[in-house]
């Protein structure tokens, strides 16, 4: 016996599967109306599948007149082979073999999945005697309602149409592999940072629309206000603000869908809950969109007739359009335009808003920004959302990490990739430069100043994600070369010295004082933390090598290499025995200040001198200087003790006290707060990798066979008092084959933000840690390196993983590396040279599998 017809669904779906019997001619007025409803839904960007065994001609004759030429709909023919409607008539659905209708449903769902539409967003309505389709639905791949005839289908479609026509808030597909919920116990303001969305370099925190809190909701990469150390990211006009009357939201669920780049917020317990959904568009830089709904009476979320955007905003188009400008003439500015529409669906009030931000030294004229927002509105929210889902799905096809044995870590790493994509978005639609502040655009920690975090933590990650973005980050530094020259000159040196904390124009904005815990301290990093100059040069070379852009290095980026090398050449002191030194510096380990010959600084400076000499030779310029740089590089001491195989982190380090990192010093810990500034200086406790950081960035510059002795020495002495620390430590440990230790470090790294380990997420996400996490997987576990135009692989799996797959870009290719217990498989879209575990070069044209060789422990290496 057939069951009663389906209940209303109560939510919006993105695709509908019906049976031929629901739409066929001659089945009365209900079937005719179903055809018309399907046509109307397809106007709202809903995908359709009509399941039938009829011939293409018959189906076309019945449906085409109703559905019209722009509709995307699919059906299987008599042969069982699915066809998709196209502008020139039906075309076979690519890659699908003939088979029964259930297979067509499967193919349709696969196709949708590839466009970011998960099972929870597909409505399947089986026919009355339709065991086959019911079985297809029961497999959990879509939302299946009870069997129904045309009248019941009509009711379901009417509900969908009504929801779309009244701009109801859609939902997200709840796939645990992709959905991040608010971690229990985390402060709301921290979750706001976790749930930030970015496009075109503009970030919007996930703050409540009606109560955004004190932290600025919208920030843009490189848009600052103020001067000197006080210079900070400028809070921009807020597009999300809503006035919602009635009781404040007491309990709610927030879900960030990483797979499609959508944030959903739903009040719990209310009869008509407040719900909002927003996105920062992946394909339209700077375009953001929001829908909200709540009870129509006192709580209508669109109570304000206009988008707020702040007091200085102006309106046009009967107040529907609002625009504002923020910024002063000397610095980058932002322009924003927004439109909104209000609606009502019975007792539900709705609002839809679309805005477009543009930033830059000379942002585009307002008319252009308004035209963009008008175009986005014309395209329609439904289509913007559909395009967003598809764009993100394509991104994840290309860049991803898959660890089936560790779904929680997999999601955490995807969370990092998601926000790194957000950072990368700043390279698109802006000035061609990308300013990466310490917390991206997710908060004003460190006032948004640019540190070495950008150059050696984020750029390597971006190079493997989006080469345009890593190039833009290097260009940001390049454009600030004049300021770096000036800084070197003022300190009596040649060349260019980049500032420790860099401001809008590349000026030094490092503060002179700060707080250590609650105690005021003098900050000396601006004066002494000089390695950033070599880090900037390293990022240019890394980008060029990883992305295979030699012309970028020999052309536009060459001055970065040359000028930084000139700086080091004039900064070195050569002693009576001819050895070169860098005195009075702070290394990455900031617990020890004003030290001489910090290993990291010296090794990176040495690398910088040699790299500049190579570039000068290849470009055929400054030969005499290049010879001098090479000579000086050979003289620079690096603290390597041949007896122990270890590098001394700085002169005098071995004589400092050893302290066990246990009890209240258990890492990760701010050991300087626990032991005091002077106290920690007396010890060998270090904040973050210094010698090991050199091993990570320039392995060929570190002493031969020094990796394991250095790991043994510095691993137990590292407090991980900086968010930058655990990820790099993980990368180095994994490379050395200490994979289980590396895995623990990687877990700490991803917990920094997702569990707010250090209580600092409120002021933004630790983007360097995210870059380090991706490096730990890519260069650590998957063992990927690029050298001399070849892809080098030396993967190392921890015991807990039977496999890991990374998808990334390198050498102008789209690559996949899948590491299994006994084999490693490389897949590439264009031919690439691969050197596996130090073996001979192999040309891989599409895919190749390499046997994994046993390591010293007898396991595959
Ligand atoms: O650049 C880092 C530094 O290495 C440690 N303190 C925080 C800075 C900004 O993230």
TrEMBL record:
This is Glycoside hydrolase family 65 protein. InterPro entries: 6-hairpin_glycosidase_sf, 6hp_glycosidase-like_sf, Gal_mutarotase_sf_dom, GH65_N, Glyco_hydro_65_C, Glyco_hydro_65_M. It comes from the Bacteria. Residues 785-838 form the Glycoside hydrolase family 65 C-terminal domain. Residues 414-775 form the Glycoside hydrolase family 65 central catalytic domain. Keywords: Glycosidase, Hydrolase. The keyword Hydrolase applies. It comes from Actinomycetospora chlora. Pfam families: Glyco_hydro_65C (PF03633), Glyco_hydro_65m (PF03632).
């Amino acid at each position: 016996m057939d069951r009663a017809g389906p209940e209303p669904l109560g939510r919006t779906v993105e695709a509908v599967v019906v049976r031929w019997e629901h739409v066929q001619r001659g089945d009365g007025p209900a079937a005719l109306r179903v055809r018309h409803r399907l046509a109307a839904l397809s106007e709202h960007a809903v995908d359709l599948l009509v399941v039938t065994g009829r011939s293409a001609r018959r189906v076309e004759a019945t449906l085409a007149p109703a559905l019209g030429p722009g509709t995307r709909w699919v059906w299987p023919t008599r042969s069982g082979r699915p066809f998709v409607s196209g502008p020139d008539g039906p075309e076979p659905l690519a890659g699908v073999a003939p088979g029964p209708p259930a297979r067509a449903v499967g193919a349709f769902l696969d196709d949708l999945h590839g466009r970011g539409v998960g099972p929870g967003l597909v409505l399947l309505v089986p026919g009355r005697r339709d065991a086959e389709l019911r079985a297809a639905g029961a497999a959990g791949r879509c939302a299946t309602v009870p069997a129904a005839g045309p009248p019941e289908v009509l009711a379901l479609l009417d509900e969908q149409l009504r929801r779309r026509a009244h701009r109801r808030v859609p939902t997200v597909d709840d796939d645990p592999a992709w959905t991040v919920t608010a971690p229990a116990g985390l402060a709301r303001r921290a979750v706001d940072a976790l749930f930030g969305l970015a496009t075109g370099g503009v970030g919007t925190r996930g703050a409540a629309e009606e109560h955004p809190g004190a932290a600025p909701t919208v920030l843009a990469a490189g848009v600052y206000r103020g001067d000197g150390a006080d210079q900070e990211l400028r809070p921009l006009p807020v597009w999300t603000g809503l006035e919602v009357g009635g009781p404040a939201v007491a309990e709610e669920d927030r879900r960030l869908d990483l797979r499609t780049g959508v944030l959903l917020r739903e009040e719990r317990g209310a009869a008509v809950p407040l719900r909002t959904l927003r996105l920062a568009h992946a394909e339209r830089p700077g375009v953001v969109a929001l829908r909200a709904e709540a009870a129509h009476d006192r709580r209508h979320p669109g109570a304000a007739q206009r988008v707020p955007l702040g007091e200085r905003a102006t309106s046009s188009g009967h107040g529907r359009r609002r625009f504002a400008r923020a910024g002063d003439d000397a610095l980058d500015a932002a322009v924003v335009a927004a439109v909104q529409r209000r609606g009502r669906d019975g007792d539900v009030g709705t609002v839809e808003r679309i805005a477009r931000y543009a930033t830059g030294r000379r942002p585009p004229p307002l008319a252009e920004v308004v035209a963009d927002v008008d175009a986005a509105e014309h395209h329609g929210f439904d289509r913007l959302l559909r395009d967003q889902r598809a764009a993100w799905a394509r991104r994840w096809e290309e860049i991803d990490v898959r660890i089936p044995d560790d779904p929680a870590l997999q999601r955490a790493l995807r969370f990092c990739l998601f926000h790194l994509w957000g950072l990368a978005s700043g390279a698109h639609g802006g000035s061609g430069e990308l300013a990466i502040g310490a917390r991206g655009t997710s908060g004003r920690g460190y006032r948004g100043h640019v540190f070495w975090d950008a150059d050696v933590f984020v750029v390597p990650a971006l190079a493997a994600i989006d080469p345009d973005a890593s190039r833009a980050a290097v260009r940001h530094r390049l454009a600030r070369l004049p300021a770096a020259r000036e800084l070197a000159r003022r300190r009596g040196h040649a060349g260019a010295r980049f500032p420790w904390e860099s401001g809008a124009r590349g000026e030094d904005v490092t503060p002179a004082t700060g707080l250590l815990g609650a105690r005021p301290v003098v900050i000396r990093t601006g004066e002494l933390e000089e390695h950033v100059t070599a880090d900037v040069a390293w990022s240019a070379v890394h980008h060029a090598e990883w992305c295979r852009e030699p012309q970028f290095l020999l052309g536009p980026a060459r001055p970065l290499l040359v000028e930084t090398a000139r700086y080091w050449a004039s900064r070195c002191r050569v002693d009576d025995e001819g050895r070169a030194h860098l005195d009075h510096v702070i290394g990455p380990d900031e617990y020890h200040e004003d030290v001489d010959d910090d290993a990291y600084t010296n090794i990176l400076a040495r690398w910088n001198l040699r790299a500049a000499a190579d570039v000068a030779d290849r470009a055929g310029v400054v030969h005499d200087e290049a010879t001098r740089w090479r000579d000086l590089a050979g003289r620079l001491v690096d603290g390597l003790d041949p007896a122990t195989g270890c590098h001394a982190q700085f002169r005098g380090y071995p004589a400092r006290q050893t302290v066990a990192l246990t009890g209240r010093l258990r890492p990760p810990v701010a050991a300087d707060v626990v032991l005091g500034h002077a106290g920690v200086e007396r010890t060998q406790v270090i904040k973050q990798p210094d010698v090991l950081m050199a091993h990570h960035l320039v392995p060929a510059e570190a002493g031969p066979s020094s990796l394991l002795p250095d790991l043994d020495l510095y691993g137990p002495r590292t407090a991980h008092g900086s968010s930058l620390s655990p990820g790099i430590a993980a990368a180095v440990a994994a490379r050395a084959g200490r994979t289980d230790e590396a895995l623990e470090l990687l877990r700490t790294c991803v917990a920094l933000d997702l569990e707010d380990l250090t209580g600092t997420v409120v002021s933004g996400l630790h983007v360097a840690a995210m870059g380090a996490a991706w490096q730990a997987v890519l260069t650590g576990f998957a063992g990927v390196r690029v050298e001399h135009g070849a892809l080098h692989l030396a993967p190392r799996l921890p015991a807990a993983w039977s496999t890991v797959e990374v998808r990334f870009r390198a050498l102008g290719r789209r690559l996949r590396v899948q590491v299994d217990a006994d084999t490693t498989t490389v897949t590439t879209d264009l031919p690439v040279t691969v050197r596996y575990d130090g073996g001979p070069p192999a040309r891989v044209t599409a895919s190749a599998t390499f046997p994994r060789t046993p390591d010293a422990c007898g396991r595959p290496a």
